[in-house]
Amino acid sequence: MNTLQNKTDFAVVLRVTHANPNGDPLNGNRPRTDYDGFGEITDVCIKRKLRDRLLESGQSIFVQSDDRKIDGARSLKARADAALGKKLGSSETAKLACEQWFDVRAFGQLFAFRSDKKSKKEIDSEGDSGVSIGIRGPVTVQSAFSVEPIDVSSTQITKSVSGEGDGSKRGSDTMGMKHRVDKGIYVFYGSMNPQLAERTGFSDTDAETIKQLLPRLLENDESSARPAGSMEVLKVIWWKHNCKSGQYSSAKVHRSLTVQPDGDIKLDTLDGLSHEILVGF
Questions:
Q1: Which of 148, 214, 213 is nearest to 182 (CA)?
Q2: What angle do CA 205, 208, 212 make, to 5 degrees?
Q3: With CB atoms counted within 10 Å of each terminal CB, which end of the chain scores lower, N or C?
Q4: Angle between helix 204-213 and helix 43-56 axes, rounded to 10 deg
């Protein structure tokens, strides 16, 4: 199978309405913001959603979340052992892992596992002698930021049932807070590098799979913090260069897109660079 032949850039515009798109656990789970008040959704959060959509579509995924995993592996080490066996840690690890898991050949992965052949005491005295193999993936995804500063609303909530005690009185755990973004338009960018794709085997077919899933990125992702319909993908912009190295830098391509506060977009034309606009599901 041929690897990715053309450098590719993409952007995703999404709308948030009365939802917490990405809470910060170090800040009371408030929606993430930067120092200027712009809303943020981390790249890790976005890749988690993309991995979930890929898993639902039947792709083999290495980094599965606990609440969505489809195998009996209780850790990444267990999943790697089950798939690679004795070849885990060998010179074939990277090649086999990329062939086995879509997210590894797309986003890359660091395989860092402690060796089972030595005791903990031996490892402490000699240093970690485990497996440490890094795979650099061709697909990069940036964090999403709102196009305007956001307003965060906070509501105090109470639980009708105590989580602890005998039920005769309410405990301290019955009081809580919920936070949400009333409204906001966010945009994030990504890129696909053909040179790195040659190392992992990431193909044009793999790129097309991601392209078709991006409009559905937020489907089946509901929770109490993100009720159904509170987040939606508005548009996906897909730029395809005419060569592996690319006609323009990713920075220049991304700057050609202007997103308005209402979600409308303005796209400057770059000579010789093809683009496609997909509407959210």
A1: 148
A2: 140
A3: N
A4: 100
